[in-house]
Design brief:
Elements: H1 14-40, H2 45-52, H3 56-68, E1 72-75, E2 80-83, H4 86-97, H5 102-115, E3 118-125, E4 128-135, H6 158-165, H7 169-179, H8 192-205, E5 208-211, E6 218-226, E7 232-241, H9 249-269
Antiparallel strand pairs: 1-2, 3-4, 3-7, 5-6, 6-7
Helix pairs in contact: 1-3, 2-3, 5-9, 6-8
Length: 275
């Protein structure tokens, strides 16, 4: 039996194609509405309509669907829409899926204290490296926008470089074709040959540095975390002001390698204690 759909298949008719296209556009608009309401801490239908350049009747229809599904609530007195309670459950589920064990959080907290810098733990999730835990303080704040769930700009972040350096050439090529190597600052490495040479050094040295490639004035470094099979399953990282680093680079590297060893022990044995 042929796997090719006949020419009169509903999926290939102009109306079928149009229906699918309209459906995708509706989903995109709906997700954009949620993002706008979240970013603004609430929004009116008119504000959403203006932000998306979508007719207000369409916006009202999508808003009502989101209210009915409990992803938004309608504050009728204020004529505003705010995030609904069902989103909390989604957030809890995401945190559960990226759950960081208490001993690992303690190790990242210790890294933050020892290195006097914001400290991060990133995990591999499919083809992405995702920040799962951050330890910082007012004196040593995290680099914006590095927060829970961040998974972008692997070519310009230290923990992202650890992931890329561990990939085969074919895997890396496929990843970068999809994600690109956008110039985020004047220092971002965007030349593929230069990036490959840089990642070869990362693989050899076991540590990745990012020097004002992601955010001007900021420097980050990361070391991989390995499980019992020797596979890199994530990384520990720190971020600090570029001006603070020159006199502390060796010290920071020492703390990072110690933190990596501690977290790797947990993933090998279920304990961060030496045996």
């Amino acid at each position: 039996m042929s796997n090719v759909a006949p020419l009169n298949s509903p999926d290939l008719t102009p109306s079928g194609i149009s229906s699918r296209t309209d459906g995708v556009a509706t989903v995109q608009k709906t997700l954009s509405i949620l993002e706008i309401v979240a970013e603004r801490g609430g929004a009116t239908a008119r504000e959403v309509s203006d932000a998306l350049s979508v007719p207000i009747p369409t916006v009202y229809r999508l808003l009502q669907e989101l209210v009915h599904a409990e992803y938004l609530v309608h504050l009728k007195g204020a004529k505003r829409f705010e995030l609904g309670y069902k989103l909390h459950g989604l957030g809890v589920s995401l945190h559960r899926q990226l759950a960081v064990p208490v001993p690992v959080r303690a190790a990242i907290d210790a890294l933050h204290e020892d290195a006097s810098a914001a400290a991060y733990f990133a995990v591999y999730r499919g083809a992405d490296v995702v920040i799962a835990y951050v330890a910082d303080c007012p004196k040593h704040p995290r680099v914006t926008p590095l927060k829970f769930g961040f998974h972008e700009a692997a070519h310009a972040t230290a923990f992202g470089k650890i992931m890329l350096a561990g990939m085969s050439i074919e895997q890396r090529e496929q990843y970068l074709q999809v994600h690109g190597v956008s110039p985020l600052t004047a220092s971002t490495i965007t030349d593929r040959g230069e990036l490959d040479r840089h990642l070869a050094d990362v693989a050899t040295l076991g540590i990745a540095w990012e020097r004002e490639e992601f955010v001007p004035g900021k420097v980050c470094a990361a070391v991989g975390v390995r499980n019992a099979a020797g596979m890199t399953v994530g990384s520990v990282a720190i971020g600090t002001d570029a001006a603070e680093l020159p006199d502390r680079e060796h010290e920071v590297e020492k703390f990072l390698r110690e933190g990596s060893a501690t977290v790797s022990r947990y993933f090998r044995s279920g304990s961060t204690q030496r045996r």
